[in-house]
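Retro notes - structure team

What went well: the batch runner handled both jobs without manual restarts.
What didn't: labels got mixed up in the shared folder, which is why I'm recording both outputs here explicitly, each with its sequence directly above its tokens.

Job 1
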Amino acid sequence: MTRQEFHNRYKYNNKDHKIGGGAFGTVYKAYDCTLDREVAIKVQEIQEIEGKEFSLQLEYDAIKALEDHPNIANYESVYRYADGPGLYDYAIMQFYPLGNLSSYLKNNTIGNGERNKILVQILQGIAYLHHNRVVHRDIKPGNILVVNRPGVGIIPKITDFGLSKLAEIQNDYSQFQNSFAGGTVEYSSPEQLKGLSLKFNTDLWSFGIIIFEVFTGRTLFDVDGYSAGSAGKQGEIMQQIFKKDLRDDMKLLPEDWQPIAMLCLERDPEKRPSTGRELLKKLPKEFYKLEEDSFLRAESALKSSRQELYGHMGDCNEVTTILKNEVAIDDKPTVVNLNNQKVSDKPIQESPKPIGKTRSKTNKPIVIAAIALVCIGLSAFLIFRFLGGSHVPKFSAMVQLEGKTGYIDSQGNSILEPTYKGGLNFKEGVAPVNTENGWNYIDIDGNLTIKGDFDLATPFSDGFALVKNNEGWFFINKDGENAFNQFYKGAKLFGDGLAPIRTSEGWSFIDKDGNIAFSGIYDDVNSFSNGLAGVKKQGKWGFIDITGEQVINFNYLGVENYSEGLFGVLIGENKWQFMDKFENVAFDDFFDQVEIFSEGWAAVKKGNKWGFIDKNGKLKIDFKYENTGNFINGIAPVKLNSKWIYIDKNNKQIIEQSYDRVEDFELVN
């Protein structure tokens, strides 16, 4: 939309229609002539602070990927136009006639019941942001809009995410990132004012102040005798935030809210609840029930599911397991004996001839699209014959015979010749293979894409792969570069945007910028899967979510990854069972060992034999196999008479060839 088109559609003038503003933008009431409605338009000049862009576009980007939430107000769209020497963003938002919470409380008389509802909903909005790894950093009544929903009452909506994106993308301890610049001193946490590293619970300090303001009508930290915004006033307020005795102030609150406010106003962030979700669980049951909040269920924040990754790097009769949950510990890889480990017992092949001639993958989409334009009805056979290209399978598996590795498609046809010493599955379009010079990456046509001659390498996950050289373990991007310029004692694969790394203190998690995602050191961890990760402390396993909040207690001797709503837990020697995320037992049965659920079925072991069950615990394939993989695309690998074959859900062998080792089928891209 051009600037002229923008002003033809949205009618307002700067003098008469201003409804708010501050250091980071001005808000106008406007009329949308296309949809015949009133809107709010925020206008802000793009700024650069310490080399970082600060704009409404970044504010919009910070939460645009989130699901709509009743207590979050986001911009509908953002436009950028030059105005004189400056560049300005124009953000469109729904117009809220009642304004923000601050003005609503001043202009209306409401009872404590309504105040309770407003506060709970604000906290639900904060918790949802935290659950999606967003720190707001400027929570205050002026940044909470309100709407009166017919038949329901006042609905608060958190807005103004100008600082949240910066908090998410920065972790460099710069003065801006860790100061209260751009925030509001009266609502800033002690750690924010001191320039310390911020966590999710900096927002909870602000929420504690809002609790006080909602019930008393005054600001918790304030001084008289100074002009608004003066350095003297800010200094006095900061001293109150650091030192003021709050006990008498807390007595002014309703009894139910006094302990909640005190938890929020813990000056030591380590003693404060870590996230909004954790604080919600401390509310009285008549105020809030977590099990009824669909937005905070474990799978709601991140919908993208990740298939379980596991694999092996072979040398004679031993396999180096660097995927699943045994990845890269200390200076040496974990070596697992094939005869004693279920996961490590999975194979690798000598493959039949490749299908057709090899050619670069790069032009296939263009060529196929061109053929489709000429004649949509052309068959794949004609494309193959006249274009001379190999078919790109949707699924592939790494297989091995007699120590040589190759790749097959789900019909058992060979994709690549068995020329490799070892290999792992294709993922995100490439696969790691062991060559004479070391581990490198190839595409589906066998073309070399990354030549690193690594000591070890894994498939890509979330855009990164884990590799090892003589300096240690590190993550690479698709260009083969050390993504974070960092080496680790140990690491595991990315899942749900986070990866476990091992330091001298223990295991923690990093994000896709290489920054520590949240506080928490563990004895051992699994990669995230479907929003949860198994973590171990003091000999027991539990689960955390992507904010680092504990969601399953540390009660178990072992855990399998959360998948399709269930996870396996070890409660005694060779005594596994399945539970849901609320720790309800899925069905009454125990197994010697279990795998994750995949496509509705899970592999389970009883009496040294493996079979498959469904989510009701019903046996679908009898206990007859020496080992198994998981069903992917209706196909699973199973081991029988010391050889691996592939079966379907009718327990029929569907690929004639048997192999020494195999992997589950995986999506190539």
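Job 2
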Amino acid sequence: MKLPKILNKSVAVRTTFLVLCIVTLIMFVAGTLQTRYTRSAVGAEAHRQASHAMDGAIKMIDTRVSKVETAVNTAAGYAYLLAQDKKKAYTLLQRLIAANDDIAAVTLMYRAGYFPDEGRYYAPTISRDPVSGALEEDEIGGPEYDFCYLETDSNWVYTTKLDTGYWCLPYVDSMSTKRAMVTYSVPLHDERGETYAILCADVDLQWVRHVVETSKPYEYSTVMVLSRDSQYVCHPDSQYVLSINAITQVKHDNETDIIRLTENMLRWKRGVDTVHSMVSFDSPKAKEHYDTYIVFYAPVERVQWSLCFSIPQEKVMELPNRLGAHMRILIIVLLVTIAFMLRYIIRHQLLPLKDLATSASKVAQGDFHATLPEIRTEDEIRNLRDSFENMQLSLTEYMDRLQKTTASKAMIESELQVAKGIQMSMLPRIPDAQSPTPDTQLYGCLTPAKAVGGDLFDFFVRDGKLFFCIGDVSGKGVPAALVMAVTQAQFRTISAHEDAPERIITELNDRLAADNTTNMFVTLFVGIFDPAEGVLRYSNAGHDSPLLITSGGTDFLSCDSNLPCGVMPGWQFTQQQAVIASGTTVLLYTDGLTEAENIDHAQFGEDRIVAVAQQSDALPRPLIDLMTAAVHDFVGEAEQSDDLTMLAIRYK
């Protein structure tokens, strides 16, 4: 069953559905906004945490590096007291390395041949054992130690050239423990201002990893440190440290967003980037790889490193996503609960309406005294019940009146049928082929628009002559029928002793006009046909002209314009006469024929009368039957608007 059919069968279901749709929409919008707000808040918090951790890590690195610089620079300040003496040089180194635990080794590199008895290279050093912390003295300069620093060591080259403190690039100590190291060097000057040696402090980079790992904002975030030569100073995989060139690696993998990120880091910029993969930075040993990472990066300016934290966006948004999933489940549970509760509540509230509908159905089936349900509330349903009760009372009273009216109407209809029978009995009885005289044949019919009507026709034979008339009383119904009865009776009475048609109409007019307070009138055509001579004498009182139908065609009988009977007493009507040829049919009719209307209010008219007459054989009964059928076909479903009367007389 389709949803619209289900909804149309129950107000409770339809209301529940509509409310549920609105609640669903509200919850969906609220849930979406809440999820967006939560994701935005969590993202902002991640940014804050990462920035705070970044600043803390950089500050810690800078502090410890700064302490090394301070210790070395301090030692360089009093080095002229000790460093120019070969025996006292170790004392200088001893004091320096003892003053800072981050220093793994200290070395004095003298210029070529500074101590002639030591040859070209002389580099006394003191190193700290990474395990026990014990200090060991040594001398490492010269080819025998593979350390020709005057030609190959960057500390000597750049420090003497820059003539200031210098942090070298990170490197792997190849002479002792193979540890990642970085060296800070300062030049030592003699009385002439010339550099006679450089003082170097080697710093083990193991503490850098510890600092950044303890500073990262989240446990699942990763941290990396790049030096200015694109080498990893710190990496989650220790095998990458000082062995992989980051820029070469990302360009080989051709990852545009990682390349851009690496270039920004090597330009010592600070920022946040979103990248879609960290495969180039991650080691093959990484346990998890995510689709999107948020990378925070900033420079450690003192040593020209770049520090970055990478945070998987999926992990950052894990809580909002979980919250969103739980919220969706909660919304579904709430919607189901609300649906059941709404359906129950609405059905309970509509029970009185259902009972009222049952009572209404009984009333509709005719039980006007059906008991209506009691409703204790004062709401709209109570108002509807009261209104229905008033309607029930009104309907009961109406039905009582209707029964009385129907009985009265039935009585009137019965009386009208009796009146119709009486009226029809007043008309002359006409068999199928009536021949009032040997030389004439006649047929007529009258179809009232209501039970009784105001049309009339009559004929009789006296002294071998055919007396006939046809008339139409103004109005319809009972008043017209009464005037019709009077008119027909007067015609019979007057024509019984009068042979002139104009005198018959004149006397009839005077009688009808006397005391005519209702102003009703009759259009009347009276004719006297003498078959022996074939002469028709006639007088017309405002009636339609008869139609003459001969073998040669059709034509309307010429009639004078006279007033209808009953309008003006004393009116002098005129007589006319016409010779009727043998085989001629005279068709008389009322305006119910010419003015018969169809549903478009078009009238039958004289042209159609002529056309139908020309199609007939001019015999009275077939002519009238054909004309009647033509009128019915023309009118169609339109209601008959006037009495229809026709009388046809054929002269043999």
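One thing worth noting from job 2: The mean pLDDT is 85.
We'll revisit the folder naming next retro.
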